[in-house]
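QUALITY CONTROL LOG
STEP: pairwise intake check
CHECKER ROLE: data steward
CRITERIA: each record must contain a sequence immediately followed by its structure tokens, with no blank fields

ENTRY 1 OF 2
RESULT FIELD BELOW
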Amino acid sequence: MHKTHKLLTLSRPTEFVSGVGKDQLSEILDAAHPRKSGAGKVIMREGARAAHLFLLKSGRARFYRLTRSGGEVLLSFLRPGDVFGLGTLLDHPARYIGTVETTGDSEYLVWEDIRIRRLAQKYPRLAQNALGIVLRYLAAHFDRLFDLVTCTAAERLARALLHLSKETGVVVPNGVEITATNEELGAQANVSPFTVSRSLNRWTRTGALHKSRGKVFIHSPEKLIDD
């Protein structure tokens, strides 16, 4: 019951167990192993067999893929409540399609593939929730592809900033704080770090935001849209 209490007090909803009854939730959480790690810990690696399902309880992580030359392509940031490794729910688990690495002190839950599959069979709501999560991720990546074709670089960056402010932003007295480097913002918007720097400087002059090391503070979102 101790695990259940800690999960239910997450600052954000946990879609994977949405609609699951209290007793069922306790059983599901008891089947997981709690883990902690600092920044820079790879907890899921692209290409490896999907042997575990993960749920981020606290902290922050990034999900990326490697290019043939060894570079990284950021796919998304992960926040508390997000799950990854959903291929474990298949009877013949797929391989992980990307790598997840923590970017700060983090806590997460880990289920072995056999145990989580049995739970999903016992409680079909888990499988339904997993499908909803996959479709949401797919829609987000379709949106990025659509933006790449139809929007300017500045428009893509503005949309990326607004998306991050909604998904991972922290409300502060003068706006919303986002933790992201120019390289990470560029990967999210499909623009170069130079374009990110130039656009952020312009928006700083208009009062829309200001930037400090590894952080962006958005003051007037409407100025990003009207730019």
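ENTRY 2 OF 2
RESULT FIELD BELOW
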Amino acid sequence: MTTRVGFIGLGNMGKHMAINIAKAGFDLMVYDLRAEPMRELTALGAKAARSADEIGAHGEIIEVVVVDDRQVEAALLGEGGALSAAKRGSIIVIHSTVHPRTVRKLAEQAAAKGVTLIDAEVSGGERGAIAKTLCYMVGGDKAAFERCRPIFATSGANIFHLGALGSGAITKLAHNLIVYVNMLAASEGMRLAEKAGVDLKSMEQVVHAGAAQSRVADHWSQQRKLKDTYTSGPRGLMELMHKDLRLALELGHDLGLSLPGAALTQQMLQRVLEIED
């Protein structure tokens, strides 16, 4: 019997993750506040939910891909939230980049209903979801992880179980910190070369061949365009990145760890993304 999957959040990355699940033949039900991505998924055979609790009632595995901690809590615990209708023995998977304490708090409330919650943050963005090359960073119950692995594999090329609940969230925050600080360095170097008259494509080739090579720098021209294709626009992307760095800084504060590079990058995001006032 095909596993029943519920999926909440059809944004830039979530929509393509859901498309991959639908194309793989799972019994999929989706929910989003926007009608357009819902139509795209139903055209592929997915069922359309009218509320998050319908997702909870449908899914043996319930995936959540929304923006932040507040939206995750609303999707699961708010009025008509998925957890209210989730069946005993089902699994909730948080893919959103959130604070590990949010994961642990929600897992306690899920466990009270006989539902297992794991965190499985993802990296690779829209391009990675389309290409099925996402990296999954998973924390929580190993048996639940193994049940979810075939679904993760529809979009993921690298799937890591990293340990206890919250490990995925911690790893994703550390990962994004590295990416965003790298973006600050790339933006300054590329801007310097371009302003001084060096062709940007040529500069990208040099960086790729030299010690400054990174995935961020390799695709800098595409990175510059990302803000224009993001679901909620340039400001929405900046707010998302600001949120990720805020969470990393909060985690660092909790651990007594100074993260000055993250703090500086957070202050410079508007410049990094080339967003005008």
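INTAKE CHECK: passed for both entries
DESCRIPTIVE NOTE, ENTRY 2: The CA atoms of residues 140 and 164 lie 5 Å apart.
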